[in-house]
Every structure is written in C-alpha cells, then in structure tokens.
C-alpha cells in the first residue's frame, strides 16, 4: 500500500457531485449542523453494505447517531473497554438520545458465522467478537422448531436483536434512563429483499410490521 494511492474514481466523482449539486441545496442544514449535533436517536446496526440507516429511515445528517459493527452487537456491562460501549455512553449520557434502535437484517453474515463456527476458521477476530452474541446462539439452540438453514438464520437475526436489547440494558446508564421514561429501546429487523422493517413487540414477543405497530400505538 502506498501513501499516495488514488481513491476509487466513483467515490471522487461522488464527492464532486455532492459538493456541486447536493451541498448548495442544503446550506441551511449544514450551517446549523456546523454549530453542533443534537440527535434524538442512536441507531445500532450491522456493517453490512446493504443496510443504509439514513435511507431506510429517510433521515438527514444530524438525526441519527450511529454505531455499526459486524452483527450489531453491544458488549454487556463488565466487558473491558470497547468502542461500542464508549460510543453508547456518549450517545446516552452526553447527547441524551431519547431512543435507541437495534436494527438487525436479513441474510446477516455475522449471524451466519455464529451458527456455523467452522466457517470462521480463517477469521479468529470475528470469532472472538461474536462471543458478544453468545446469548443469541443459546436462544437459537433452545428453539426446538425444526428448521432449515434459512429459517435458522432468520431466527438468529431475530434472537440477536432481543439479546442485544438485553445487553444494552445491562449498562446502568441505559437501564436507569429507561426506567425513568427518558429513553426508549426498540428492536428492528430490516428485510433487504422486501425493503420492509419489522419491530419487536415485547407484549406478543414477536416481530411485527413497523407500520402496523406505529398505527396501533
Ligand atoms: Zn450483518
């Protein structure tokens, strides 16, 4: 790798289009954002290139504070320093976000690796990172429903969102604010092929279409 390696041409062209065609129409927004940020939502999702938080929520710069990693995992309290927990603390304590969305997605490679550890033989760091999804693996193995690989992967994606909500709550600064009514936690799954989002309903313990939930509440 050389220090003067050329960046991908399509990225350079994209930046040029942003500067010349997009930015001029958003100067009011960017002049406000120059002063600082006040996002109401922390959005936690996978690094998967097919998941675009701002696209699927139709939000603008400044609206979503985002944590992304393989498998949308949040290490539980008691785990030594991680970037995830530092960023979570900043979002909740310093920025005072009012909502946290954990958004898994269909066809998640991290969840696939969790179910098939032998596929991670050449990926020791991924394998180690996935220990933060151990609860997910246990939830999937507890489910006695016979299922094929695709169904088990979907089950893992859903179980993982629930497990990560619990791991979020293991952090006292999250749990205290949720108890006080200052913070709401939401579990979503984004279906890439269908362009649909389902949300976890703790009362039915099921994922339901987000639109229906919104209209019902
Ligand atoms: Zn993923």
CATH topology of the largest domain: Beta-carbonic Anhydrase, Chain A
Bound molecules: zinc ion
Low-confidence segments:
none
Structural class: alpha/beta
Sheet with most strands: strand arrangement: 2-1-3-4-5-6
Helix content: 40-55%
**CATH class wording of the largest domain:** Alpha Beta
> How many domains in all?
2
The share of residues in extended strands comes to 15-25%
H/E element order: HHEHEHEHHHHHEEEH
CATH architecture of the largest domain: 3-Layer(aba) Sandwich
The major β-sheet equals: 6 strands, mixed
Radius of gyration from CA coordinates: 19 Å
Count of discrete alpha- or pi-helical segments spanning 4 or more residues: 10
Residue-averaged pLDDT:
94
Number of strands: 6
The CATH superfamily of the largest domain turns out to be Carbonic anhydrase
Using the alpha-carbon principal axes, give the shape.
globular
How many angstroms does the end-to-end distance come to?
A: 54 Å
What key attributes describe this structure?
217 residues, alpha/beta, Beta-carbonic Anhydrase, Chain A, 2 domains, six-stranded mixed β-sheet, 10 helices, 17% strand, binds zinc ion
Describe this entry's structure for a reader.
The protein has helices at 9-22, 27-33, 53-57, 83-94, 109-115, 124-129, 134-142, 149-169, 172-179, 210-216, and strands at 41-46, 64-69, 99-105, 184-191, 196-201, 206-209. The longest helix is centred in the last third of the chain and has 21 residues, at 149-169. Helix content is 44%, strand content 17%. Strands 2-1-3-4-5-6 form a six-stranded mixed sheet. With 217 residues, it is of the alpha/beta class. It has two domains: 1-36, no CATH class; 37-216, Beta-carbonic Anhydrase, Chain A, CATH 3.40.1050. The chain is globular and about 55 Å long. It starts with 8 loop residues before the first helix and ends with a helix. Zinc ion is lined by residues 46, 48, 71, 105, 108-110.
């Amino acid at each position: 790798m050389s220090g003067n390696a050329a960046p991908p041409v399509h990225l350079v062209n994209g930046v040029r289009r942003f500067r010349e065609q997009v930015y001029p129409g958003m100067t009011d927004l960017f002049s406000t954002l120059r002063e600082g940020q006040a996002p109401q939502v922390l959005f936690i999702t996978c690094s998967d290139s097919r998941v675009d938080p701002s696209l699927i929520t139709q939000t603008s710069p400044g609206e979503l504070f985002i944590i992304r990693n393989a498998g949308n995992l949040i290490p539980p309290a008691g785990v030594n320093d991680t970037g995830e927990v530092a960023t979570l603390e900043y979002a909740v304590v310093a920025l005072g976000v009012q909502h946290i969305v954990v958004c898994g997605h269909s066809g998640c490679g991290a969840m696939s690796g969790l179910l098939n550890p032998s596929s991670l033989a050449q990926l020791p760091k991924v394998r180690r990172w996935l220990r933060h999804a151990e609860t997910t693996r246990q939830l999937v193995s507890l489910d006695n429903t016979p299922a094929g690989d695709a169904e088990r992967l979907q089950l893992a994606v859903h179980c993982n969102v629930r497990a990560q909500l619990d791991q979020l709550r293991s952090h006292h600064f999250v749990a205290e604010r949720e108890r006080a009514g200052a913070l709401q936690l939401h579990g979503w799954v984004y279906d890439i092929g269908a362009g649909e989002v389902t949300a976890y309903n703790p009362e039915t313990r099921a994922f339901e279409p987000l639109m229906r939930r919104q209209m019902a509440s």
